Amino acid sequence: MHTRAQAKWIRMSPLKVRRIMNLVRGKTVGEAAIILKFLPHAAAKEISKVLFSARANLVNHQQNPVNEREVDAFRIARIFADQGPTLKRIQPHARGRAFPIKKRTSHITIELDDLT
After folding, report:
1. 80: helix, coil or strand?
2. Are the CB atoms for 94 and 63 separated by under 8 Å?
3. C-alpha to C-alpha distance for 79 and 92, rounded to whole angstroms
4. Rounded to whole angstroms, how far apart are CA atoms 104 and 46?
5. What does the alpha-carbon distance between residue 69 and residue 75 come to, in Å, rounded to a whole number?
6. How far apart are CA 47 and CA 36, in angstroms?
7. What interhelical angle do 14-24 and 42-59 show, nearest 10?
């Protein structure tokens, strides 16, 4: 069984998100949920939302639903963060100059697969 969940336009840099993703890559859903719960980073909250969405996709699948107790045994097959569109802002600087501010966004994708 294979499922996927995605969150788009998260107002966070992909570099910050990837740092947390490396901690849970390849782990089971249960282990990853525990790790993300106790991390102090803001990216951990966003990744856990996507993880629980993928978990719910497995439980509520129409053709092959999976029992809630069995979902924690699934592993994270792929997890990645792509860069989304960058919001551009201008901050004034000294002597009439302008300084660009790049507010980066990211798209988080998690794919779950069974252990076999």
Report:
1. strand
2. no
3. 38
4. 15
5. 14
6. 8
7. 60
Residues with Cβ within 8 Å of residue 88, at least 6 apart in sequence: 100, 101, 102, 103
- Residue with tokens 């990645």, as numbered in its chain: 80
Token output for 51: 């993880």
pLDDT digits (tens, 9 = 90+) for 44-97: 999 999 999 999 999 998 788 888 888 889 999 999 999 999 999 999 999 999
Task: Supply 111's token pair.
Answer: 């794919």
> Which residues lie closer than 8 Å to 39 by C-beta, 6 or more apart?
20, 23
Residue 4, by phi and psi: left (phi above 0), alpha (psi -120 to 50) or beta?
Answer: beta
Amino acid letter, 108: I
Domain containing residue 40: CATH number: 3.90.470.10
Domain of residue 11, residue span:
2-113
Neighbours of 75 (CB within 10 A): 16
Alpha carbons 77 and 28: distance in angstroms, whole number: 9
8-state DSSP, 100: E
User: How many domains does the chain contain in total?
Assistant: 1
